[in-house]
Amino acid sequence: MVEDIMMEAEERMEKAIASLHEAFGSVRTGRANAMVLDKIKVDYYGVPTPINQMAGVKTPDAHMLVIEPWDKGMLRAIEHAIIGSDLGVTPSNDGSVIRLPFPMLTEERRRELAKQCKTYAEEARVAVRAARRDANAAIERSGKDDNLPEDDQRRAETGVQKLTDRYIEKVDEAYKKKEAEVMEI
């Protein structure tokens, strides 16, 4: 019973970390990264479709993304979707591919992005703590319902706290790494 509670808590904490990495992937740094396009959907014959499912995305250098749609008729739609997004990059369409030049970030924009990353990290910490709270509540319930001895209950709560500390540390490490990447000139 306690093992199931621990496994479920760990799964939820792992999902929080995965969600954090996904959120960090969408934050634009000074370098071109194809993950910034993941959240942009294009109306592809009536179906909202991610750009990477309808075009090849290449990174020829550190500050450029090249989008080459498999259906050349979708160039305009992709261009409009990028302009309509909050990416902050102006696409240039040459009739066969779309180029996305990523200019160097200003100091002010870097600070804004670092603040955004901090918010994502705090959301992940909250999710990890929520998993801890739910696990502790489940342990307490099993103490009442399943007559789990108090010693085992305390041991399980200590285990949940150690697990929480480990995942909070992972969140902090990921945040520090992303912050350094964003602030890098």
From TrEMBL:
Entries under CDD domains matching the protein: RRF
Keyword Cytoplasm tagged: yes
Protein's cellular compartments: Cytoplasm
A single GO cellular-component term on record: cytoplasm
GO biological processes: translational termination
Membership in a protein family: Belongs to the RRF family.
Protein name per its UniProtKB record: Ribosome-recycling factor
Organism name: Xiamenia xianingshaonis
